[in-house]
Amino acid sequence: MQDLRPRPVLIAEHMLWGLRHPLRAFLWALLALFAIRPALDGTPYLYVVDALFVVLVVAALRALVESRTLFVAALAVVALTVASRIAGDVKALHGIASASAGPSALLVGLLLGFLFWHVIRAPRVTYDVILSAITVYVLIGVFWGFVYLLLHDASPGAFALDPSQGSAEVQLRYFSLMTLTTVGYGDIVPKSGEARALATIESLLGQIYLTAIVARLVGISIAIPMPGGQAPGPLNRPVDAPDADADGR
Predict the structure, then answer these.
(1) Which CATH entry fits the domain spanning 7-224: 1.10.287.70, 3.50.50.60, 3.30.420.10, 3.40.50.1820?
(2) Per residue in 142-167, pLDDT tens?
(3) Where are the domains of the chain?
(4) Strand (E) or helix (H) holding 32
(5) Tens digits of per-residue pLDDT, 184-196?
(6) What 3-state class would DSSP assign to 65?
(7) How does DSSP classify residue 243?
(8) Do 137 and 119 meet the contact criterion of CB atoms below 8 Å apart?
(9) Residues contacting residue 99 through CB under 8 Å, at least 6 positions apart
(10) Which of 183, 110, 106 lies closest to 149, judged by CA?
(11) What is the dihedral of CA 242, 122, 78, 95, to 10 degrees?
């Protein structure tokens, strides 16, 4: 049945849901941003979408960061990133558009660190923990895309880019995600030694992360006691629990 409520009411309800479940909303918003941002490039709607995404970033940080001091520092990085990206969009400052790559990489790195810590210290596997682990994987690709952008700014010939296919940031984020997932279509090629080294490290990190995080989540799952108070067996004993001796002590 079609929902006949006004669109602003529906949008407000979705935003409230996102604020109540910031870690879930952040992943879906991040994936949606990949899909719709290129189509909105150059339109006023892009700023609205970016503003909503910033709100979700702040909500996610608030859910992840327990220390007030760290949260204030993270907010400062968010403000710096927003200011640098706005400056890059101003035509009079077009020459420093790439200056946002550094603050953006710093912000994504902070999110990566907080989310990864949230995942590895989780006492049990929940829906939020699984989504957070997926978000870390996606953010690795985003972070590496900004690293490639910094290299491209320092050495413009480091990557074979096609200016007709969008900005360097968009193309290098795409290249990063393809490298992370080891797809490698070959339409963008690292040409310098530094670019090849970074691409190699990213592809290795992606595979190591997937292996390690799956092992960690499975380890948490099998460490949970059996229903009814049954003692943990060999498959669900905590990974750091000492083995019983021959007398069962």
Answers:
(1) 1.10.287.70
(2) 999 999 999 998 888 899 888 888 78
(3) 7-224
(4) helix 22-40
(5) 788 889 999 999 9
(6) coil
(7) P
(8) no
(9) 84, 87, 88
(10) 106
(11) 70
Out of 18-27, 93-102, 210-219, give the one with best mean pLDDT.
Answer: 210-219
Helix axes 7-20, 22-40, angle to 10 degrees: 130
How far, in Å, CA of 110 to CA of 52, rounded?
Answer: 19
pLDDT, tens digit (0-9, with 9 covering 90-100), for 171-183: 999 999 999 998 8
Residue entry with tokens 């992370």? 180
CB within 8 Å of 179: residues ≥ 6 apart: 141, 144, 199, 202, 203, 206
User: Is the separation of the CB atoms in 137 and 210 below 8 Å?
Assistant: yes
Q: Beta-carbon neighbour count of residue 26 at 10 Å?
A: 26
68 CB-near residues (< 8 Å, 6+ apart): none
Asked if residues 30 and 50 have their Cβ atoms less than 8 Å apart, the reply is no
